[in-house]
Amino acid sequence: MAVSFVVKLAKNMSFQRAFRKSPDHVKKAFVSKILSSSSSLDDILNNVPDDLIEFVPNSLLVFGGQIPDLHKINEKSWSPQQAAVMFGDIFTRIENYTMLSPFILQGFQCDVASKLMPGQLSSLVQEVRHQKAILSEEQLSCMARLLIKSNLTTNLSSYPADVLLFSPVSKVEHQSCEMFYTLASQGNLSLLANGSSQRTKLLENALHCFGVKNTSLSQKQLQKLGIFVCDMKPSTITDSDPAILENLKECTDLTAAQITALRMLLASGNTVYGSPASWDETTLEDLGLLAFYINHTIWDSINKEERMIFFRKVMDGCNSQRAFPKAKANLFLKSVGSKPASALRTKRATETCRSAPITSSSLEDPLFIIRYDSAQQLDACLSDEVVKANLALLLEQPLPNDYVAIVKKKLDKSYPDGIPEDQLRLLGFLSRQYSTDEIGSWNLTSSDTLAALLNPNDGAWEMPQLRRLVSRYMELGGSLTGPLLDMLGGKYLCFLDEEELQEINPASIRHAEKLDISTCAQVKKDILYQKAHTAFANQEETRAYYPLIQPYLGGAPVEELKKLARSHVGMDIDTFINLNPEEVKKLRVQDVKDLLGVNLPDLKEVENHPSVAMWIKNNFQSELDSLGIGLVGGRVSVFSTSMGSTVSI
């Protein structure tokens, strides 16, 4: 397909609408074709459709000597990684932060923000709140540190609630604690790791501030505590005012014990929603995410017609392109759609199909899983021919594990000589049920097939499976391109052998998204860093270099780290603790101070991390004291008066 035709096609609105349903790897390939004729950033802005802009490689967004149209940049829906690459260049060209979109603001960079005057910083943070820009843990931590450093902590209500979650609780004064924790309780608690020191301190201090002494919370206390209720004991759910359900709706996840308590409360009928027997489809929708925690006992007590309406709506949500909690919804559909094992009658040697035989029309029914409500019925009613002809449609259903096993059995029976490649692309979550030996027999020759099999929405691969999958593809002549590296992601990349990593072309790294390689063995980090350093060498003197190279710094030598320290990049603590310990050991105290910048206090929180502890022991205590963050365990200097020499202990 000619590039000129692709560029013209990309501007066709009918094509754009139809293309939205295409898999990501197909979209990336299409954008790559457009980019082959784009020689400047303005060309990219003009030629790549808005819906596909997120698939432009980060490395192509470096301004360099260009002066692109900032108005057009601001109109695009960039990914956080893309925005991070452009953030520094954009900030050198503007003074009015109110013109920035949330997609640009989500690229917030610590080193850029640290150079702002207090008034500018305050305006920027307020704009992040106004635009509802979503920032990462590292960005929010830096932002909180900068606000404290600039003494900008009096106007808390004008800042994002998420920033307050990362503010040191030791800085919260008693007279203002109620306002602070009430505002912070509106943030996204899942940004903080479960069990983390900061998350634990927030809950403890909030409870102390509000005078909470037991697990029985009043409606007024619940309103103040907000999301902090998500971390409280399961007994709090049953002991408190039923209004606690409104708090629980905001919880990203609940523990098994909390879910049990929630079900007890809902089943009791002592809530604003009343007895489950009185619920209708509107009630189920009003429950929000809590509806997905309903078990079979509660589900069966709801009016059948009403629950079927709700089931259909959840199925529609799972199959749509809109934002929807699909993982939770799928678990719910699997749970209530099929009968629990204890409810099934004793299986006969051969069960007959009690419903109509399954056809392509049956598979389009949102209530399919309810109509064929046991694995035995699926087995009896589903023919091998229907599986072959309708595999993709069948796998769109929320199939429980025992159903999946039956589909695999029938598919394998249909293809005794091996599954054809066009069917491999359709396997989805079913692919995770195949052994390494079975994967080793696949005719896996196309990058499109591998990309389809790597779709993260289909579940996780085990390491042996993943390694065999990629090695099989490479055995048959395939290579790992940028889009494939994106599909692999950092975690799966770490599963590969060193020899396979060596075969990756630096250009593939340059055209990949941000890859988290923190779980890789050190030797693999070293390989990937060298390739990334080669890939981004021509951007080394630009503002965009640090966000481009940052994911690969775990393999960086000390010379590179010292160079970054001189640039005052404001490295976050997670990146720091994933650096090569042997290289970190060579850094001076001043190097680390310059490298971390405003994030230096976080070093105290990780002082027991092996690489940090080794670095501390390798430096003089007197120099560590100069940091003013309370690090201990450094070397002590002893001066000999007779020889005039210094002995280090």
From TrEMBL:
Keywords: Cell adhesion, Glycoprotein, Membrane, Signal
Main location: membrane
Pfam families for this protein: Mesothelin (PF06060)
Record lineage: Eukaryota, Metazoa, Chordata, Craniata, Vertebrata
Protein name: Mesothelin
Similarity comment text for this entry: Belongs to the mesothelin family.
The species this protein was found in: Naja naja
Cellular location(s): Membrane
InterPro entries named among the record's database cross-references: Mesothelin (IPR010335), Stereocilin-rel (IPR026664)
